[in-house]
Amino acid sequence: VNYQVRDYDGNVIGITGVGLAVSSVTNLIETYQARYGRTIYFIDTEGHVTLRGSGFGDAHSLQERPGMRTQAT
Known about the structure:
Order of helices and strands: EEHEE
Oligomer: single chain
Largest sheet: 2 strands, antiparallel
Number of strands: 4
Helix content: 10-25%
Distance between the termini: 29 Å
Number of domains: 1
Number of helices: 1
């Protein structure tokens, strides 16, 4: 990770850049999911899931995820 994205209070809300192994990012996702009670996932411009933590299910795109079908285009 080359840069941490922070909110106005200084809390990390995202990461950007390259240089971190996928397994490390997956571990971060799991940590943040447990800490904040949210499902975290990365998608590409077409809505395909590129990286996810547990709890996302087996969907390969947002369109396949219940509750997201009408929101994802």
